[in-house]
Amino acid sequence: MVIIGGLVMTQQNATYVTRDFASMSNFPVYDTNTGVWSSRSATGTVSTGPRLLHNAVLGTDDTSIIVCCGLGQKSTDIFNDVLVLDTRTWSWTLPTVAGTFPPPRDDATAVMVNGQMIVLFGEDAEGVVLNDTVILDTRTTPFRWTTTFEPAKNDPLAVVGGVGGIVGIVCGVLVIAAVAIFLLIRKPWVKRHKPNPEISPAPAVANHDPVWFPTP
């Protein structure tokens, strides 16, 4: 995480705090992997000087930070320029940008989508809230300001989660097929009866009348 520009507040005493613009050549960096703060110094010249209320997004190369717009040290210094910080070399460049530049603004919102930096709203030098949306297309060389957004081409596999989704579906189908075959062969719902052993007839018992003998 790189903190670029803004204000640095210093507590001078219990009741007094000074506010100074942060340098655009020195900034704190937080490593989210190690949890360690460090300080970095950048080379190159940022012609417009310090700023705040600007926008910064990560470039599609995952190493460049694209900064635009913002408020300078004077209330009338409102920018619509574009700066690029290369975090591999920690150097600033001012890229060539084509197209019609949008009105200068500060306090806008920006997000990078499909290589296009979408800048929304903000305020102008008079404090008037802007209601437009402008787009910096970083996919082209040079970059280009435009008002048309191009979504990513539809991936036919995206609806099922890409290749991983296809693999999961195939595995699921195979499991279901195996279970169905097992059920068809074994038919566990059919109650099977064991054959009864042959019952042998009970032996006949002779029925004899009692014999009476005379008493002597």
UniProtKB/TrEMBL annotation:
Transmembrane domains' residue ranges: 157-185
Keyword list, A-Z: Kelch repeat, Membrane, Repeat, Transmembrane, Transmembrane helix
InterPro entries listed in its UniProt record: Kelch-typ_b-propeller
Gene3D superfamilies according to UniProt: Kelch-type beta propeller
Domain of life of the source: Eukaryota
Pfam families: Kelch_KLHDC2_KLHL20_DRC7 (PF24681)
Name assigned to this protein: Galactose oxidase
Organism from which the protein derives: Jimgerdemannia flammicorona
